[in-house]
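Example 5.3 — Small ribosomal subunit protein bS18
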Amino acid sequence: MSENEIKEERSERPEQNEASAEMDGKPQRKQNKYKKKVCRFTADPELAKQINYKNIELLERFITNRGKIIPRRITGTSARYQRVLAREIRKARSIGLLPYKVN
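Solution (predicted structure tokens):
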């Protein structure tokens, strides 16, 4: 090999080694399989104002077909709004707008 060929070969190597140097320097974070859930009420404050025991369409999204309140780990709702939702669902149940239990 001539000196020019060796210089060209060496100049190509750093580009390839930069990516491997980043991997060797720090441990890489493990990629999550799942998308992070975002609270829809925190993202949209106008929607948070609509949480009311009279708004049955909104509240029905947060109860199962058997009448149970869906937990926040599944819906992605923040703790603050989950408490508000649960309170409003209980109010709607006591008035008779939502079922306690579906047979």
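Remark. Helices lie at 3-25, 40-43, 45-49, 56-60, 72-75, 79-95.
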